[in-house]
From TrEMBL:
<feature type="transmembrane region" description="Helical">
    <location>
        <begin position="257"/>
        <end position="279"/>
    </location>
</feature>
<keyword id="KW-0812">Transmembrane</keyword>
<keyword id="KW-1133">Transmembrane helix</keyword>
<feature type="transmembrane region" description="Helical">
    <location>
        <begin position="535"/>
        <end position="555"/>
    </location>
</feature>
<feature type="transmembrane region" description="Helical">
    <location>
        <begin position="226"/>
        <end position="245"/>
    </location>
</feature>
<feature type="transmembrane region" description="Helical">
    <location>
        <begin position="375"/>
        <end position="395"/>
    </location>
</feature>
<protein>
    <recommendedName>
        <fullName>Lipase (Class 3)</fullName>
    </recommendedName>
</protein>
<feature type="transmembrane region" description="Helical">
    <location>
        <begin position="97"/>
        <end position="117"/>
    </location>
</feature>
<feature type="transmembrane region" description="Helical">
    <location>
        <begin position="337"/>
        <end position="355"/>
    </location>
</feature>
<keyword id="KW-0472">Membrane</keyword>
<dbReference type="InterPro" id="IPR029058">
    <property type="entry name" value="AB_hydrolase_fold"/>
</dbReference>
<feature type="region of interest" description="Disordered">
    <location>
        <begin position="743"/>
        <end position="771"/>
    </location>
</feature>
<feature type="transmembrane region" description="Helical">
    <location>
        <begin position="300"/>
        <end position="317"/>
    </location>
</feature>
<feature type="transmembrane region" description="Helical">
    <location>
        <begin position="160"/>
        <end position="177"/>
    </location>
</feature>
<feature type="transmembrane region" description="Helical">
    <location>
        <begin position="424"/>
        <end position="445"/>
    </location>
</feature>
<feature type="transmembrane region" description="Helical">
    <location>
        <begin position="487"/>
        <end position="509"/>
    </location>
</feature>
Length: 771
């Protein structure tokens, strides 16, 4: 199995002629054409195993439409927070509280997205600019909305009703994208377990990854999708009602006022029903979730659309003399959303602290169990930056040469809070830069310390080379920076929380943008505030433009799509448990694929197998082995290399990949070996000892394979880092040992010197890693 970045079956099998055995264009198992019918010719394979490659890269970087997943980054990060809970016992009462808090926080991100779309379409465009002669002048596409034309659409309510189609389309797009990927990814059911294979794993070593329904949360995602769609539609309806109610409260018709209150009550009732659905939609992993949804869940989106339709009629009703002045009523809700998200993050941190105290093993848990709250805060921050960046840039475009929100601007511009949030971005970047500088200093110190020991790792007959020693040491020091990621995330999260709270307080106390709020302050303070406001606004817009540019390039360039796919390989391994609009979980297709293939093949042919996984492929391999029944699992040996199982997943997701879970995995398998290098920035040791004192880890492997120029290697050997583990002779040796341990009757591998364990010349140029 290949890892991050993917590769072709031809490269993995070392043969240009391959044949699809089972699967489709998205994910499939391949063999060399000569090996396609190996089971029918057993006598021809007495001396070697049959090699098979599982290719899954198209699950993450296949067609160009997947570049659109970039806009779903905040949802993906919030979903990760769900899986980062500490490794407390599953029956601990705080577990349910933690999951509920993450689901509600994810719901606020959907509301924030809908509110941001309403800010751009309803407030800035239909309410402010279209209602201001100076702003609407020169914009022909806005002429029919201008009050100067006295057209049917010129009434403020009708302008808002028409503009509400934009946020509704955004919500519809997310619903459609989620439903399409739901049909493709969450539809792979796990194979049935063999009867009579009860689990005797100690309770402390059990993991949810071994439960039969873990990779089949199809109905859960559907329920969450209904709730989030309803929340988005209700957000649009609430914005329209706030604007219309303001007009009715200023001497409007009493019948309209009563209608507005009735519609508001309906919105509140549907919002409460949505919260109840989110509250009750917890994962049930003991068995595949195939239960039908309640009638309330199925009808919620349609009920919200019906209320929105009534609200559109109510908002567009003629109100003689109505005018749009100032910002749209209810625009200050951004501050309420930010405060509510902050409260949720703090509550999540308290819950995580309680769980961490009850955790079974917390020695290497990242951020002492605070990884989930920190990541949840970053999800809110990214969502705020994207929302504010779009609003700020769009307002600048509408205003022409003016600055929205300033005294000379034709329109008030976005809510003041967005300007304050933009102003703290430069300060946050200074903190990140400071942490990066400290990391660079640490890297130099480690490089100088390691450089003293590098020559001693090689044959003393090889002549020392100061430059090469420095490069090897620098690679080792750079790879070690991965373990410093918790420091960067902790610093960023802490500063984000403090600055975010300061931005909300500043906006509420002054009611003006930072530049105008500090006009009476000392010149230095005023200049700093104006600089931070202008620079932050530009940075917010630049971030949005960069995201759009990356998506556009990825749509046209296959190599760029593959790069984006690498990001999703890490970020979308987990099922959509908190946010249904997050990028889809490729493991919900890959893990059942592997489980079905291993279970059916071993049952049909009474076979044994070595499952070999590189990088992210090793994580999929472990997850698939956990899904096997105990009889099949005992026939499988695992070979991982460049694996982040402990270094990344064990530290950040301790409830699922912590030391007890990995110990239980090895206990129920035939055997497990893990290869790693100091120069690998992703993979690392598993840090477990097998029964009998034998270690799972084989390493650190020497990298590069030779230090200087020798008779065997006249050219400098490449520093391999995360790739080309098959090029190391240790790979072939360990793989042969695993095959030999499976059964004395099984054939050995190819004779040495003929081909490498993957069917390639041992040191050939085609020996690239599968990652």
């Amino acid at each position: 199995m290949h890892g991050v970045g993917g590769t072709t079956a031809q490269e993995m099998l070392g043969d240009p002629r391959v044949q699809l055995i089972t699967g489709d264009d998205t994910a499939a198992c391949y063999r060399r054409t000569d090996d396609a019918d190996a089971e029918q010719r057993p006598d021809d394979y007495r001396g070697e195993p049959v090699r098979e490659a599982y290719c899954w890269s198209n699950l993450t970087s296949g067609n160009g439409a997947r570049a659109l997943w970039l806009i779903l980054v905040p949802f993906m990060v919030a979903n990760l927070a769900h899986w980062m809970r500490p490794a407390a016992p599953s029956e601990h009462p705080a577990q349910r509280i933690y999951d509920l808090l993450v689901r509600i926080l994810a719901l606020t991100l959907t509301v924030l997205l809908a509110a941001a779309a309403c800010e751009v379409a309803l407030d800035l465009t239909a309410w402010q600019c279209a209602g201001t002669t100076v702003c609407a002048a020169g914009k022909s596409w806005m002429g029919f909305l201008s009050p100067d034309n006295s057209g049917w659409w010129s009434a403020p309510g009708r302008r808002l009703a028409l503009a509400s189609m934009v946020p509704l389309l955004v919500i519809g797009f997310l619903w459609g994208l989620s439903r399409r990927t739901w049909s493709a990814y969450e539809s792979a059911s796990p194979p049935p377990r063999l009867p009579g294979t009860s689990r005797d794993t100690p309770v402390a070593e059990r993991t949810a990854l071994s439960r039969e329904g873990f990779w089949y949360g199809r109905r859960l995602v559907a329920r969450l999708r209904a709730a989030h769609t309803t929340a988005g539609v209700l957000t649009v309806a609430a914005v329209l009602l706030a604007a219309a109610a303001k007009a009715d409260g200023d001497g409007g018709h009493p019948v309209l006022a009563v209608t507005g209150r009735a519609l508001t009550a309906l919105v509140i009732v549907l919002a409460a029903a949505t919260l109840i659905v989110v509250w009750r939609t917890a994962r049930s992993e003991g068995a595949p979730d195939v239960s039908s949804d309640h009638l309330v869940v199925r009808t919620l989106p349609f009920a919200s659309l019906a209320v929105l339709a009534l609200t559109l009629v109510y908002t567009g009703w003629a109100r003689p003399g109505a005018r749009s002045r100032g910002p749209l009523p209810g625009a200050d809700a951004f501050g309420g959303i930010a405060v509510f998200q902050g409260v949720l993050v703090l509550a999540l941190a308290v819950t995580a602290w309680v769980l961490q105290r009850a955790a079974r093993d917390d020695a290497r848990t990242a951020l002492r169990g605070m990884g989930g709250p920190a990541v949840a805060l970053l999800a809110c921050a990214v969502g705020g930056v994207l929302s504010g960046g779009v609003a700020q840039r769009f307002a600048d475009w509408l205003d022409g040469g003016a600055t929205p929100g300033q005294a000379h601007a034709p329109i008030p511009g976005p809510p003041v809070l967005l300007s304050w949030q933009a102003s703290v971005i430069p300060v946050l970047l200074v903190v990140v830069a400071a942490v990066a500088v400290l990391a660079a200093i640490r890297m130099v110190i480690v490089r100088n310390r390691v450089a003293k020991d590098v020559p001693g790792l090689y044959d003393p007959r090889e002549q020392p080379d100061a430059g090469r020693t420095k490069r090897i040491a620098a690679t080792i020091a750079g790879a070690g920076l991965t373990d410093s990621a918790p420091v960067l995330i902790a610093a960023t999260s802490a500063v984000t929380l403090v600055l975010g709270a300061g931005a909300v307080i500043g906006a509420w106390l002054t009611g003006r943008a930072p530049g105008r709020a500090t006009e009476g302050a000392p010149p230095v303070v005023h200049a700093a505030a104006e600089t931070a406001e202008s620079l932050g606004s530009w940075l917010m817009g630049a971030g949005v433009i960069l995201l759009i540019t990356m998506g556009r390039r990825a749509y046209r360039d296959h190599s760029a799509r593959r790069t984006i796919g690498i990001l999703w390989d890490v970020g979308t391994f987990w099922p959509r448990a908190a946010h249904p609009f997050a990028p889809p979980c490729y493991a919900e297709r890959a893990v059942p694929d592997l489980t079905w293939r291993m279970a059916t093949w071993t049952e049909r042919f009474d076979g044994r197998l070595v499952l070999s996984g590189h990088s992210q492929g090793s994580v999929l391999a472990a997850a698939a082995v956990w899904q096997l029944d105990l009889v099949t699992r005992s026939r499988v040996a695992l070979l991982t290399y460049g694996s982040p199982l402990e270094r990344l997943y064990g530290r950040w997701f301790p409830a699922f990949f912590g030391p007890p879970a990995l110990t239980g995995l090895h206990r129920e398998m035939d055997d497990w070996r893990n290869l790693w290098r100091f120069t690998d920035p992703i993979g690392g040791p598993i840090r477990l000892t097998c029964e009998g004192g034998r270690r799972i880890d084989q390493g650190p492997l020497r990298d590069p394979l030779s230090f200087g120029r020798t008779l065997q290697n006249p050219l400098p050997a490449q520093i391999l880092g995360h790739g080309d583990y098959q090029a190391d002779p240790v790979f072939g040796t360990v793989r042969a040992e695993l095959i030999a341990r499976l059964s004395p009757d099984l054939p050995g591998q190819r004779p040495a010197g003929d081909e490498s364990p993957e069917g390639r010349p041992a040191q050939g140029s085609s020996g690239r890693s599968s990652g």
